[in-house]
Amino acid sequence: MSAADVVAIVDRLEGAGLSVWVDGGWGVDALVGRQTRPHDDLDLVSLLEEVPALERELAALGYERAGGAPPMSFESVDADGRQVDTHPFEPDANGDGLYLKRDGTTWRYPARGFKGRGVVAGRGVRCLTAE
Fold this sequence. Notes:
The protein is 24% helix and 36% strand. The chain has 131 residues and is an alpha+beta fold.
C-alpha cells in the first residue's frame, strides 16, 4: 500500500463526506509526517453508521470485502492485492468510540484519540493520536 494509494482512498472517502481516521502503521507514519517503512495495508477507523457508504466508495476504487463483517472489523482487497482493514465504531455519550472486536469484547477508543492530525505524502489526514 503506497502513500499515493492512501491519499487516493482518503480523498475518495472524505470527498463522499465520510469520517475516517488513519490507524496502524500508516497512522504512525502520518503522525511522524513521513513514511518510515513499507506497509502491507491501510487501517481505517470509521463510524459504523457510515460503513455501507464506505464500502460503496471502496468498491468504486475496485475493493471488495474479503473477510470479516460489520459491526466488527472487515478487510477489503483490490485486484492488485492492496488491502484496507476497517474498524467501525459507535460513539458513546462521552464521545468515546466503542469498537466490537471479533472475540466479542469491546475496545474503547478515547474521544481525545480522534483529534489526531498527520500527513501522508504531503496531504493532511485525520488519524488517531499516539495515545
